[in-house]
Write a structure and sequence with these properties.
The structure holds 2 protein chains of 2 kinds. Chain A is α+β, with helices and mostly antiparallel strands. In chain A, 43% of the residues lie in helices and 20% in strands. In chain A, α3 packs antiparallel against α4 and α6 runs parallel beside α7. Chain B is α+β, with helices and mostly antiparallel strands. Chain B contains 3 helices and 9 strands. Chain B has a 7-stranded antiparallel β-sheet with strand order 1-2-3-4-5-8-9. A two-stranded antiparallel ribbon of chain B has the order 6-7. Classes of the chains: A alpha+beta, B alpha+beta. Chains A and B meet through α2 and α5 of A and β5 and β6 of B.
């Protein structure tokens, strides 16, 4: 097969990947081989507005799909809003109550399809800026760090079985077998800081001696009062995990060595 | 890389008995960007926390999503056990010879797809168990081991 033959075959194969299903006189569903990260494909329709005017629309599906991973309210402020507006502006897309629309006309409708699809994929990628996703990584990184360094000495989700058989007051990680076991909390939000504060106060009422520490995702993101109360009950805090990994494990190792000396 | 949840755990969370839910709480009322949404948290008989998330597109009645998620303890992650989708888009399963279909379909969490780096609920199968949003809710409640709703409150 010559390169020219191959090019023609390839061109036909690519063209066959786009299929059209009429949904009435003025609207058609257009199947395209482009996917969201979970294998669901984009929703694309072509709607006729007049003899020569058309519009590409996603019928509001893109934001609904995005909401699987991201609270779409987060697109109404900050960096995500700026990025979204930038994508829409570059592609010439209009947003109509959550429906993404690209006006087009008979002469350029095919070319505009690719522009529309590219913009939908870029908007879909805003999910990777999801705050929850970042936070999830923080928790995993926190646990992995302690597991790798302290191995079997690190007890995750520890709770006092004699005082708290239902495990209502868990400690994220306890370094045990010490006169004063080290209780370490990963703190990624105000609610986690509040829970850790309550847990540590509860341990005090049980007369359990702990060396309490907090490792923050980003300390400055906590509200002032929450951080103040948490600071009152811990012995040591690290303002962030990222970049401080070695300092954190070194510190806890020194505390272990000190207690065992 | 997220922790991989094995098939036995997925099965255990799906079959963990869950209480009946009030259908009125499962009707999406909250306006979001182009769709309506409802969420409800429930606790299973084994103490696991679950979340039902329901979304209905405001333009296309066949574009909806009914999700059962498991709130994984201590990692602040909602693990999606299953998701019932409408007939509004195609789906492709890359590990099944890349099969593509366009139909009502149910996404299910699998260990296999996680091991290959895909999202937990990437795998999906077409279904004839429902043909509309309320049917999808009934189906999800059934496969998610929810107690049947009280008489007179059927969806």
């Amino acid at each position: 097969m010559t390169l020219v033959d191959l090019a023609e075959t390839f061109s036909q194969a690519v063209g066959a990947e786009v299929r059209v299903e009429p949904l009435g006189e003025r609207e058609a569903r257009v199947f395209v081989p482009f996917e969201f990260p979970d294998g669901d494909r984009l929703v694309v329709r072509l709607r006729q507005q007049s003899d020569t005017e058309y519009e590409w629309t996603d019928t509001g599906h893109t934001f609904m799909h995005l909401s699987y991973d991201l609270d779409v309210d987060a697109l109404e402020s900050g960096n995500r809003k700026t990025l979204l507006e930038s994508i829409e502006q570059r592609a010439g897309i209009r947003e109509r109550s959550g429906e993404l629309v690209l006006p087009t006309h008979a002469g350029v409708v095919a070319g505009d399809l690719f522009q529309f699809v590219q913009a939908l994929l870029q908007i879909s990628d805003l999910r990777f800026l999801s705050r929850e996703r970042v936070r999830s990584t923080f928790v995993e990184d926190f646990r992995t760090l302690l597991q790798e360094h302290f191995g079997d000495h690190a007890h995750f989700d520890y709770y006092d079985r004699s005082h708290d058989p239902e495990g209502r007051y868990p400690v994220d990680c306890l370094l045990n077998s010490l006169s004063r076991p080290i209780a370490i909390f990963g703190v990624g939000s105000d609610s986690q800081a509040r829970d850790a504060t309550i847990t540590l106060l509860q341990f005090r009422t049980w007369k359990r001696e702990l060396f309490a520490a907090g490792v923050h995702e980003e300390m400055e993101e906590l509200s002032g009062k929450v951080l103040a109360r948490f600071s009152d009950v811990v012995d040591k805090q690290f303002s962030s995990l990222a970049g401080n990994e070695q300092a954190i494990v070194d510190y806890f190792q020194r505390e272990i060595d000190r207690q065992r000396a | 890389m997220s922790t991989i949840v094995d098939d036995a755990t997925i099965r255990a969370r799906l079959t963990e008995p869950k209480p009946a839910v009030d259908p009125g709480e499962l009707t999406p009322h909250k306006p979001k960007r182009g769709h309506l949404e409802a969420q409800k948290q429930v606790e299973g008989a084994g103490g696991s926390k679950f979340r039902l998330i329901l979304r209905q597109n405001r333009i296309d009645v066949h574009d909806f999503s009914v999700i059962l998620g498991w709130e994984m303890p201590s990692v602040m992650r909602l693990f999606k056990l299953c998701r019932c989708n409408g007939r509004s888009h195609e789906h492709r399963n890359p590990l099944e010879q890349g099969e593509v279909f366009f139909d009502f379909h149910v996404h299910t969490a699998t260990e296999r797809y996680q091991e290959h780096g895909y999202s937990e609920e990437h795998y999906a199968r077409p279904t004839i168990a429902y043909t509309d949003f309320h049917g999808a809710i009934r189906h999800l409640l059934e496969i998610g081991s929810f107690a049947p709703p009280a008489q007179g409150t059927l969806l």
